Amino acid sequence: MYVVGIDLGGTFFKVGLVDTESGEILRKVEWETRVAEGKEKVVKRMAQAVLEVSNGEDYIGVGIGSPGSIDHDNGIVRFSPNFPDWINFNLGGTLSKLLNKPVFVENDANAFVLGEKWFGAGKGHEHIVALTLGTGVGGGVISHGKLITGKDGIGTELGHVIVEPNGPQCGCGNYGCLEAIASATAIRRMALEGQKKFPESEIFSAEEINAKAVFDAARNGDLLGQMIAERVVNALAIGVANFIHIFNPSIVVIGGGVSRAGNILFAPLREKVRHLVMPSFKDTYTIVQSPLVENAGILGAASIVLQNL
Amino acid sequence: MYVVGIDLGGTFFKVGLVDTESGEILRKVEWETRVAEGKEKVVKRMAQAVLEVSNGEDYIGVGIGSPGSIDHDNGIVRFSPNFPDWINFNLGGTLSKLLNKPVFVENDANAFVLGEKWFGAGKGHEHIVALTLGTGVGGGVISHGKLITGKDGIGTELGHVIVEPNGPQCGCGNYGCLEAIASATAIRRMALEGQKKFPESEIFSAEEINAKAVFDAARNGDLLGQMIAERVVNALAIGVANFIHIFNPSIVVIGGGVSRAGNILFAPLREKVRHLVMPSFKDTYTIVQSPLVENAGILGAASIVLQNL
């Protein structure tokens, strides 16, 4: 059985034909989104991309993971910072008409946790907390087998849980959100803030000053790198312990670019969370790095179809 | 239609016959629990109390709200700090045999949110976050109409979400849990800590040094009272904003002894939460004081039956 997953971003969208049995992506394309050309044209190009990857193969439906606030029952993008003029835009209906197939739309962080449930580390789990550490920090939760979305479909904003009151300001305006410390953007910001005090840190001899450079430096014993890594781990540990106390999940999956730091992030994170959770929660959960890596977007989007049909 | 609710505490248990239409408690008794006499005797006395309040009236079942970790599918008390020897005790089955009626057991904080849904401020709501500010801070969440309990039934420990890292130590061992600042116990502790610096605070001329004395003093412009009240409000505001971002509820209900402070607590809390939530969450929720007051326990327990049948 095949489904199509569309990972919709502000700059590019990726479309893949997914074999639901094996979780393999048989064909995929990555096209420019070209938001400026208007939403109707964007959707038309998405339809063309679907035809290209399906290439005559039958598929049961299309899932779209989109940034922003999504009315998933009706496939509507309420609003999205990435698509300023997509206000209450019937993305699902518009694409469905062009393809004559069912189309489901979900917030991209929710798509991520669905992807983990159907194809990733969350297989067989009914209680999953998922975090994506990228430009921002996204969150998705499956509880008792179902996606938690809240009254208006805007819940599980796990990146905006406050973990360091009076901490750095977040894009949302608050201080000390998880996103303000553990996102790729925040890690880069903390590196630049440290440059005056640590001009010789090896972070600044990296090709690009980013999360990878920070964790690489930390791994080599660079002091600034280690200080930033520790702060990220502490913030994540408080967040993850909170989520464990709230959702009592069997697994916490962490993905996104920052998660590729691997063990230098996950080893101390696991240790700190173990100290923070109450005795009754010990050994009730595992914390894992997302195995889906660069396919997380397409597989997550494809999972929306499986969760709905 | 009638149900019986049992609010089980370490010192007393309350039993009430509840009219499910009106939410009225027709008859109620409060008996000593006498844990030391052994669990079989406690349950026997609970059965006697049920017979006394039902008084020949037919009822469809019994709900028990119990502190501790509850296996609600099987009516089992896994463990409870209040009943040290009740390890994996089949409380529901034991009482059910004596009464020949279905008996359902749930954690008391979960019973509280169910009580709000069926009889209180949460009527007609499918997304409810509830907090009880008492000796500890308990939490219960209804999301998409269903109780969130997690994989092992131990979730929604909202009182142990960290809102002030490096804050006061909590009974659980962590620092800065909501419970370590916003529980009645914590408020009393902060008052006593302030006594050296503010010996003339009117808190210390109250009959009892407790949350009521602190909020009464704050209301009269007492500086220590105001400082403690502000800290409690700040901690609660961070917690409640986090829960709104996580669950996107339509209502947040706050009960327990501390909530009786009323407006001096709720007015600044509403204002601060309004500042903390992201624009998309503005006007999606209300924050209310539990209307059930001293009947919350029995009505919550009775609701467990309604939620299960």
TrEMBL record, chains A, B:
Pfam families referenced in this protein's UniProt entry, alphabetically: ROK (PF00480)
Record carries keyword Transferase: yes
Highest rank taxon of the organism: Bacteria
Keywords annotated in UniProt: Kinase, Transferase
Keyword Kinase set for record: yes
A GO molecular function held by the record: kinase activity
Family classification: Belongs to the ROK (NagC/XylR) family.
UniProt name for this protein: Glucokinase
Source organism phylogeny: Bacteria, Thermotogati, Thermotogota, Thermotogae, Thermotogales
